[in-house]
């Protein structure tokens, strides 16, 4: 079984903005600018349609090479944009998502593909179990798009964004813990730790101390209550809202995003056929570092250590690197969809353990 490495290393690129870091608009409407977000028109609860634009779609299709009869798993189904593109090429897709709204929407949107599409309830880290229970067989490819969907960001009741006021929730699925639970119950050292490590927030100590002080007066309940307080505490410089990194850290903690990714990577190779491909789209340096290190380690024919007399065969050899560096969207896509700006795509291909590629 492939084991992910947790060795600190600088990424081969770095970007300061995550998925939720564009500036606050001046009104309550979604800030789309010149973006061509696809308004599919199938309303969910509250009447809001599940809209999205698929990130790096052309590069994903080029990498996975879907054709008639191939079977794929989209581990982050979301609005179903990537899945739809795979289905249009004649492939079969198992779309996994823990968000019931996403599964409901995708099932309606993609109903024209009949039994070639199935929406599956679960987390992508559980894909081995889901595959076994569903008798999927080995797959021709797997896709993960680790960004938060536009619908999740822009629906106030989900509590992901400080652009709209809503409950301080941030759950992607049926997790018992909310962001409000964290800020109201966690200790100052624990809050400081996640703000610094997951949010890469330099003012983590100051923020954690402020939260402890403020919650003793009034518990935190809404997104704007926290965001406005952080803006007052830290001040506003430039276009990036000072609550950005704190919200990122809370979201990642509530949904155990890095843990989910590591658990998936440990078992992903076993889900693929020889020649099957794994494509992962990340949105910030922490995710990308994990994916990059796991892919590089599992594609080395030999490994070496200073205490060894010579290099040895890599027992975790599973893949051939298809992308040596993270593939970024081009300028046209970034202009069309600003939320794609920090995305990177990495792809590997499964090889037989005896391969010497």
Provide an overview of this structure.
With about 350 residues, the chain is of the alpha/beta class. It folds into 2 domains: about 200 residues, Rossmann fold; about 80 residues, Putative methyltransferase TM0872, insert domain (DNA polymerase, domain 1). About 35% of the residues lie in helices and about 15% in strands. It has 13 helices and 9 strands. A 7-stranded mixed beta sheet has the order 3-2-1-4-5-9-8, with helices on both faces. A two-stranded antiparallel ribbon has the order 6-7. Helix 7 packs antiparallel against helix 8 and helix 7 crosses helix 10. It starts with about 55 loop residues before the first helix and ends in a 7-residue tail after the last strand. The N terminus is likely disordered.
Topology of this protein?
Elements: H1 57-64, E1 71-74, H2 81-88, E2 92-97, H3 100-109, E3 117-121, H4 127-134, E4 139-145, H5 150-154, H6 179-185, H7 188-197, H8 204-215, H9 223-234, H10 244-254, H11 257-271, E5 272-282, H12 285-298, E6 302-303, E7 312-313, E8 319-321, H13 331-336, E9 344-350
Parallel strand pairs: 1-2, 1-4, 2-3, 4-5
Antiparallel strand pairs: 5-9, 6-7, 8-9
Helix pairs in contact: 7-8, 7-10, 11-12
Task: Decide which structural class fits the backbone.
Answer: alpha/beta
| Percent of residues in β-strands | 5-15%
The averaged pLDDT comes out at 83
Low-confidence stretches: 1-48
* Radius of gyration, taken over Cα atoms and rounded to an integer in Å: 21 Å
Q: Termini, distance in Å?
A: 19 Å
Name the shape in a single word: globular
CATH topology of the largest domain: Rossmann fold
Q: How many DSSP H or I helices?
A: 13
């Amino acid at each position: 079984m492939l084991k992910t490495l947790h060795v600190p290393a600088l990424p081969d690129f770095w970007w300061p903005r995550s998925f939720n870091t564009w500036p606050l608009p001046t009104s309550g409407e979604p800030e789309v600018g010149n973006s061509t977000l696809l308004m599919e028109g199938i309303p969910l609860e509250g009447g809001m349609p599940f809209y999205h634009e698929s990130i790096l779609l052309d590069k994903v299709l080029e990498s996975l090479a879907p054709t008639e009869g191939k079977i794929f798993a989209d581990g982050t189904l979301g609005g179903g944009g990537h899945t739809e593109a795979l289905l249009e090429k004649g492939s079969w897709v198992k779309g996994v998502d823990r968000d019931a709204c996403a599964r409901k929407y995708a099932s309606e949107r993609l109903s024209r593909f009949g039994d070639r599409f199935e929406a599956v309830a679960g987390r992508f880290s559980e894909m081995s179990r889901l595959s076994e229970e569903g008798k999927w067989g080995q797959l021709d490819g797997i896709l993960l798009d680790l960004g938060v969907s536009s619908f999740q960001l822009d629906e106030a009741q989900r509590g992901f964004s400080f652009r709209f006021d809503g409950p301080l929730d941030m759950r992607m699925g049926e997790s018992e813990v909310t962001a409000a639970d964290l800020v109201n119950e966690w200790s100052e050292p624990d809050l400081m730790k996640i703000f610094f490590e997951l949010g890469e927030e330099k003012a983590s100590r100051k923020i954690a101390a402020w939260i402890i002080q403020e919650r003793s007066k009034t518990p935190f309940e809404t997104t704007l209550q926290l965001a406005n307080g952080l803006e007052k505490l830290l001040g506003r410089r430039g276009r990036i809202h000072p609550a950005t990194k704190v919200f990122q850290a809370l979201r990642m903690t509530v949904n155990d995003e890095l843990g989910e990714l590591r658990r998936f990577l440990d078992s992903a190779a076993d889900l693929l056929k020889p020649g099957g491909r794994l494509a992962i789209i990340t949105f910030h340096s922490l995710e990308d570092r994990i994916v990059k290190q796991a892919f590089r380690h599992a594609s080395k024919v030999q490994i070496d250590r200073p205490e060894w007399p010579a290099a040895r065969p890599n027992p975790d050899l599973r893949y051939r690197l298809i992308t040596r560096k993270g593939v970024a969207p081009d300028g046209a896509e970034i202009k069309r969809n600003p939320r794609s700006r920090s995305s990177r795509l990495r792809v590997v291909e499964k090889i037989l353990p005896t391969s010497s590629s």
